Amino acid sequence: LVHVLLPDDCYSNENAQGGTILKLMDTAAGMMAIKYCKTGAVTASIEAVDFLNTITLGQIVHIRARPVFTSSKSMEIEVTVRAEDAVSGITFPALSATFVFVSLDENDRPLEIKPLDPPATAAEKREREEAKVRYEKRQQARRKKLEAKLI
């Protein structure tokens, strides 16, 4: 996803509004989830948002989304943002975050998500293992929240 930062996307000091960039990231992650699942999908959570460098008015924003983990009912999508100076062509990392999506049927019920293809490299294998740990922590935290509401 590519977007040029316009005045409506910025604060009065010409810096990007964080919410604008997060919305673009959510759109890119959502498109990836829908394309992968071939169904409707919704954002379940946004985690580990890291603002690395400021994006300013007129810069071109490049957003890349890629699936890094799937469970039976959710998928984790890594989203990275690079900004580009339109005149010099210099690019730099600006933002990253992890989005979790759930695939939905026509009645908005969660659907099974097919597993990712086996990792092709040792780095991909390590990335999947780390993502599985994050998934298990999310599940544990969710169970605790549900238990707290039931007591």
Q: What does this entry look like structurally?
A:
- By secondary structure, the protein is an alpha+beta fold.
- It contains two helices and five strands.
- The protein has a five-stranded antiparallel beta sheet with strand order 1-3-4-5-2.
- A hairpin with a 4-residue loop joins strand 3 and strand 4.
- The longest helix is centred in the C-terminal third of the chain and has 29 residues.
- It is globular and about 50 Å long.
- The protein starts with a strand and ends with a helix.
Provide a count of the helices: 2
Largest sheet: 5 strands, antiparallel
**SSE-based structural type:** alpha+beta
The tally of strands reads: 5
Strand order, largest beta sheet: 1-3-4-5-2
The helix content is 25-40%
Shape: globular
- Average pLDDT across residues? 95
Output the helix-strand order.
EHEEEEH
Beta-sheet strand percentage?
Answer: 25-35%
Distance between the termini: 44 Å
CA-atom Rg in angstroms: 17 Å
* Unreliable stretches covering 5 or more consecutive residues: none
Features:
single chain, 151 residues, alpha+beta, five-stranded antiparallel β-sheet, 2 helices, 33% strand
How are the SSEs ordered, and which strands pair?
Blueprint lengths: L1 E3 L13 H20 L2 E12 L8 E11 L4 E10 L6 E14 L17 H29 L1
Antiparallel strand pairs: 1-3, 2-5, 3-4, 4-5
Short recap of the structure:
With 151 residues, the protein is α+β, with helices and mostly antiparallel strands. The protein contains two helices and five strands, in the order E-H-E-E-E-E-H.
